[in-house]
Inverse folding.
């Protein structure tokens, strides 16, 4: 598993703070829009798949 941050700050294109995403360690998050966060995960055979999480502001 790749290592990396598990907390991401999500900021809109206009600079507005939208919230913080808690993701599993090593889960890259390439995009966020419309209250959803796109991620890429790898399984035990190193196959990538796309996952979508809802952005929840707490």
């Amino acid at each position: 598993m790749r290592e990396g941050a598990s907390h991401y700050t999500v900021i809109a294109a206009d600079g507005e703070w939208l919230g913080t995403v808690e993701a599993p360690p090593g889960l890259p998050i390439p995009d966020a829009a419309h209250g959803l966060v796109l991620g890429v995960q790898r399984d035990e055979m190193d196959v990538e798949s796309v996952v979508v999480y809802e952005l929840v502001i707490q």
Notes: The mean pLDDT is 78. The longest strand covers residues 36-42. The beta strands are 7-11, 17-22, 31-33, 36-42, 48-54.
